[in-house]
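REQUEST ID: PR-0412
SUBMITTED BY: lab tech R.K.
PRIORITY: routine
TASK: structure prediction, single protein chain
INPUT:
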Amino acid sequence: MVRSITQLRKAKMSYPWTRTLDVETAAPVDGVIKGIIPAWLEGSLVRNGSGIYQIGETRFNHLFDGLSVIHKFSIKGGRVTYMNKALKSEAYKKDIGANRIVVSEYGTKGFPDPCLTFFGRFMNRFSIPNAGEVTDNCSVNLCYHGDALYAMTETKLLRRVDAESLETLGEIVDVGKYVAVHHTTAHPHVSQDGTVYNMANIHGSNPSYNFVEFGPSSSGGFPKGRIVASIPIDNKFKRSYFHSFGITENYFIFAEISLIFDALKFLASNFTQTAISNAFKWNPNSTSKFHLVHRRTGNRSVFLAEPFFTFHHINAYEEEDHVVVDLCGSSDGRIMNMLTLKNIDPNVNEARPNIPAVKPRRYVLPINSESKKVDENLVSLKNTTASAIKNQKGEIFCYFEELFDVISELPRINYSLNGKSYRYFYSISSPEGTIDPNKVIKFDLQKKEVQTFSEEGKSVSEPVFVVRPNSVDEDDGVVLFSILDDEHPQKVSLVLLDGKSFKELGRADFDANGTVPNDFHGLFIAKKDQVHLY
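STATUS: complete
OUTPUT:
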């Protein structure tokens, strides 16, 4: 029998990233309003993230492992409500039903199913991981396909979520049944007509990185997809990790970073009894690459770079025979496997190791550079110090410009300018060496200035920009994010900042029914919108 979530053992620590949801706030609770809620702002901020780390006496190891919890702040007529529910995935049902971690996640190897015989558990060690073992713990992001909302992770499996009640609907959606791929990112791009673009891997004898397209759908069913461009993978057993990608009017941008996935280690993981994370290794001696793929012709150009790591692209755009690529990057890719609970939680480890800093950087990829001279900077844009040099082999090596000397993650923009020239972006920040999310920052790329929001003893979420109707200026709107109280785990607030002044307009404070964990990503669902963008 599947246990109630209230039977989970309550987490001992109040560190927001590692909290465990103990009691759902399954029905909306009203917030105490302070300040102003703009009359034009109506809709829901829906967010997703790992929020259950403790199951019985077992605990997940990695930040990305926790079972999905979905949060919803609804705004209507000046009233603001909050609710949350655990995603009732098959992984959730198996884990909670067994009162232990059974399904393997990124950094945690599942314990053998207690229903198996001793012989079955023994033989499991000699089996190769298969599609049936892939987790549907969709704890990273949310995206609309047509009129249906889906929770996403970095496998090919999605779970549909009711945008009103947050109930988990129907069966697992296997993207591989709609387009022949083996895994997708949780950071798609959505066009104004509702077309969704994503990146995906194909494994096997001819492995490839692929850009896939899912057309608009209004039927409620998941739309058929198609591969619109492919990049061959040189090594059948090793490939680059990717979490997001860039897009402009004419190009897809894939950053082939130097964090490498070893397929052979993954295939041996049952025998070695190691987590999936063991198959990922940072290679500081490799060369990273940018693949610039034309969206209509499929023609591809390759640019080289010093080894770097990124989770999140900020934006990309075309300017004067260049493609500008902005992302939050680091020259130390060990960060991925350093995000274990014992490394990040000060309640577990007072002497926490320094997490490599991730800061906003810009690469500029020159187009039509065949006739350019060797050993000269091919970047002619006047507003950047980024450079690109062609060597004697004809290879173009790109060097980044650090946009701001500020730790920056979970970046967001005014999404109407996705793939276009832009001025502002918003992100969380943390003290050097940590991922403690204590600030929300507005970055002005033109003036090279920042504006900051922070509160002592509070942790912030990814900021989401919501444009004001009929606005003209890029920053005319509101910035929405939640804040958690570091000392009182049941308290959560929704904060609204003016997009221009970055001053607080208002907030809604809530007392939830139980512990409120942190989250990763989400979107604002405006009532008036037919297509729900980011």
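NOTES: The first helix runs from residue 90 to 98.
REVIEWED BY: pending
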